[in-house]
Amino acid sequence: MVNDPIGDLLIQIKNASMAGKQGISVPYSRLKHAVADVLSQEGYVGRVAKAGEAVKSSLTVEITYQDGAPAITDVKRVSKPGLRQYVKSQKIPTVLGGMGVAILSTPQGIMTGKDAKKRRLGGELLCTIW
After folding, report:
1. Which of the listed residues 56, 58, 60, 100 has the most CB atoms within 10 Å of its CB?
2. CB of 57 within 8 A of CB of 28?
3. Distance in angstroms (rounded) separating the CA atoms of residues 99 and 59
4. The pTM is what?
5. What is the pLDDT of residues 50-94, one digit of tens each?
6. How many C-beta neighbours within 10 Å does residue 74 have?
């Protein structure tokens, strides 16, 4: 049983990209789907799709490569189940001087740090990716 489904999703994506895989399939949840959609919009992964029905549904994520190298260099899970990290809109970090992305869970849904700053929203800082 996985205690940290978001951390598990992120590490599976990173490991699959380092191993040269084309995609991964993980058990489905709306939170995982929302995080994968943000990664897809930012260009870190390709197509994201739900497969199956009801209890046996899964989330399929296509891995993206740029000139043969993985689009994802590294992932850092910031807020963990044992210690949640919340930030105000003014304190949202920039990742590698703007080269990476911070992903937040806000009252208006899962979004990047840049979008949250524009909307002046704070929330739980899920992870940083570059």
Report:
1. 100
2. yes
3. 27
4. 0.90
5. 998 878 899 999 999 999 899 999 999 999 999 999 999 999 999
6. 10
